[in-house]
């Protein structure tokens, strides 16, 4: 491997470790200095390794440079060092010899603490995802802007404001205690879930970038599983959910990047390994009494990932949606629940329930009604699909509905 | 608020399958209300309980001298009683000889 391949790879794994350790040392108020030092370290690596070749132990090299840069920083920036000295209550002459703890344990702890700091309800969710991508996953501002379909300035501002907020509240870098950890983990897991969805559902056409976002979310979640303190049922439930979804990655878009709906997917393209991993984590998530929305969603995804037709499938999915709605209402869950109801109790029963939902600004609502009326009353079905098409926001959705309409009209005529 | 009550049937001993299908009926009905985003809280009450009477008399169980027992309650979002009555339609307890009492809630803080 040459340095052009190695550096981006190390950036993804080591960048967050260096920032986390330094941030823990300096306090969150100096997060930007930690970022500067980490950036400098990688800059130096790309300059030096290109000329002199890759060192024997690249990771150790990075840590050594990060240490030296930090010491340089102390010497160079008097204001900073005085502030830090004040914060640490260190003696002036100790600054020379102070140690940066790069033991495995401290690196792991610092990263965990960093995850809790970033996935923090104090800052808006979009900023949480942005910061997670920047600091925990080592993404460039440009990549983040692309993922959010916006420009670099917007992302820079968003991240700046989020860091200001963390600084203003002077969040302490520490792990939540045993009593708090479940509640805080729910926020963390929610952010990782949204990060995953950003990749899975994003409308950007760049399929590689989308996959990368999903993989990063899975990597961070795996990090929580690897650590005993955070290896809780809810974390395993999210992992199962992500594995099941990710198993369909290859099947859900065709060669030219168009979406392929679940029903039309080539099941041989589903990734068996990921489905098996999903099953494994689903079982792990069943320890304890907790039943979070991630458990229920993973359970639904389990049934959708099974290739064998089981007569109980839709019954189970309907029950999971019922419970999910009791935990947290969302229009899309209500619509999915009604679709499941149609599979269990027939379209007529589902129409009665669907008409009570009155989600009239949601195009999926009309698309569901169109589906339910298909074959029962094709004229009505057509008119609902037409409303849905008028309300659809993306070209993909519009073209899917146009196809449905033409299929339906052909059937009625033939 | 909907309060579900039914007569006490001491010989009532459903099979696990009956229990399962009973729970499913309830969940399907709850799910229908929840899908409209109208459930505030829902709770089933267990048979375990005690009753406190004047002079510190404590009776075991909630059902000592009553013919009917409250099995659970749901708080729903509805603008008036009629709307809540519509939501109550189809409640599984109606198929098991029970009834749903629909009452409006007056907030304590004004």
Question: Secondary structure elements and their pairing?
Answer:
The complex is a heterodimer of chains A (414) and B (110).
Chain A: H1 3-26, H2 31-52, H3 58-76, H4 78-88, H5 104-118, H6 125-136, H7 141-147, H8 152-168, H9 181-201, H10 207-226, H11 233-247, H12 272-285, H13 293-305, H14 313-327, H15 331-345, H16 347-357, H17 363-373, H18 378-391, H19 395-413
Helix pairs in contact in A: 1-2, 1-3, 1-5, 2-3, 5-6, 6-8, 6-9, 7-8, 9-10, 9-11, 10-11, 11-12, 11-13, 12-13, 13-14, 14-15, 15-16, 15-17, 16-17, 17-18, 18-19
Chain B: E1 2-7, H1 16-34, E2 39-44, E3 50-53, E4 57-60, E5 68-76, H2 81-88, E6 99-102
Antiparallel strand pairs in B: 1-5, 1-6, 2-5, 3-4
Observed structural traits:
heterodimer; A: 414 residues; mainly alpha; B: 110 residues; alpha+beta; 4-stranded antiparallel beta sheet; two-stranded antiparallel sheet; 2 helices; 30% strand; globular
Low-confidence stretches of chain B: none
Query: What oligomeric state do these chains adopt?
Result: heterodimer
Instruction: List the secondary-structure elements of chain B in sequence, H or E.
Output: EHEEEEHE
Q: Based on DSSP secondary structure assignment, what is the total number of beta strands of chain A?
A: 0
Outline the structure in words:
The complex is a heterodimer of chains A (414) and B (110). Chain A has 414 residues and is mainly α. Chain A contains 19 helices and no strands. Chain A has helices spanning 3-26, 31-52, 58-76, 78-88, 104-118, 125-136, 141-147, 152-168, 181-201, 207-226, 233-247, 272-285, 293-305, 313-327, 331-345, 347-357, 363-373, 378-391, 395-413. In chain A, helix 1 (3-26) packs across helix 5 (104-118) and helix 15 (331-345) packs antiparallel against helix 16 (347-357). The longest helix of chain A has 24 residues, at 3-26. Chain A is elongated, with a radius of gyration of 25 Å. Helices cover 25% and strands 30% of the residues of chain B. Chain B is α+β, with helices and mostly antiparallel strands and 110 residues long. The longest helix of chain B has 19 residues, at 16-34. In chain B, 16% of the residues are buried. In chain B, the strands form two sheets. In chain B, strands 2-5-1-6 form a four-stranded antiparallel beta sheet.
């Amino acid at each position: 491997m040459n340095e052009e391949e190695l550096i981006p790879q190390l950036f993804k794994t080591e960048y967050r470790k260096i920032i986390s350790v330094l941030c823990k040392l300096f306090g969150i108020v100096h997060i930007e200095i930690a970022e500067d030092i980490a950036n400098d370290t990688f800059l130096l690596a790309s300059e030096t390794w290109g000329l002199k070749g890759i060192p024997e132990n690249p990771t150790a090299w990075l840590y050594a440079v990060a240490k030296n840069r930090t010491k340089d920083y102390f010497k160079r920036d008097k204001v900073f060092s005085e502030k830090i000295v004040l914060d640490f209550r260190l003696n002036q002459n100790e600054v020379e010899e102070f140690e940066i703890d790069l033991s495995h344990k401290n690196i792991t702890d610092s990263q965990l603490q960093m995850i809790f700091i970033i996935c923090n309800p104090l800052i808006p969710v979009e900023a949480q995802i942005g910061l997670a991508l920047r600091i925990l996953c080592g993404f460039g501002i440009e990549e983040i802007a692309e993922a959010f379909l916006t420009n670099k300035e917007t992302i820079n501002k968003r991240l700046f404001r989020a860091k200001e907020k963390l600084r203003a509240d002077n969040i302490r870098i520490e792990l939540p205690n045993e009593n708090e950890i479940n509640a805080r983990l729910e926020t963390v897991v929610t952010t990782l879930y949204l990060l995953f969805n950003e990749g899975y559902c994003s409308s950007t056409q760049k399929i590689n970038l989308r996959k990368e976002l999903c993989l990063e979310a899975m990597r961070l979640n795996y990090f929580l599983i690897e650590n005993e303190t955070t290896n809780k049922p809810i974390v395993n439930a999210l992992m199962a959910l992500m594995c099941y979804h990710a198993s369909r990655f290859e099947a859900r878009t065709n060669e030219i990047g168009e979406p392929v709906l679940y029903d039309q997917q080539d099941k041989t393209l589903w990734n068996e390994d990921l489905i098996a991993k999903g099953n494994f984590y689903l079982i792990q998530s069943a320890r304890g009494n907790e039943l979070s929305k991630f458990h229920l969603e993973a359970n639904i995804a389990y049934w959708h990932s099974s290739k064998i037709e089981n007569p109980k499938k839709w019954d189970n999915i309907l029950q999971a949606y019922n419970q999910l709605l009791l935990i947290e209402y969302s229009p899309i869950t209500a619509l999915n629940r009604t679709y499941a109801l149609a599979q269990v109790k027939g379209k007529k029963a589902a129409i009665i329930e669907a008409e009570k939902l009155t989600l009239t600004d949601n195009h999926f609502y009309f698309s569901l009604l169109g589906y339910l009326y298909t074959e029962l009353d094709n004229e009505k079905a057509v008119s609902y699909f037409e409303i849905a098409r008028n309300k659809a926001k993306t070209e993909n959705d519009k073209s899917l509905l146009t196809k449905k309409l033409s299929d339906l009209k052909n059937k009625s005529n033939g | 608020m909907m309060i579900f009550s039914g007569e006490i049937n001491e010989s009532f001993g459903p099979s696990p399958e009956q229990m399962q299908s009973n729970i499913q009926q309830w969940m399907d009905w709850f799910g229908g209300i929840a899908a409209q985003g109208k459930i505030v809280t829902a709770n089933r009450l267990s048979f375990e309980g005690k009753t406190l009477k004047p002079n510190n008399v404590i009776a075991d169980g909630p059902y000592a001298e009553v013919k009917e027992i409250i099995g659970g309650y749901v708080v729903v979002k509805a603008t008036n009683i009629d709307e809540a009555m519509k939501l109550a339609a189809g409640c599984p307890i109606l198929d098991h000889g029970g009834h749903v009492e629909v009452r409006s809630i007056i907030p304590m803080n004004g």
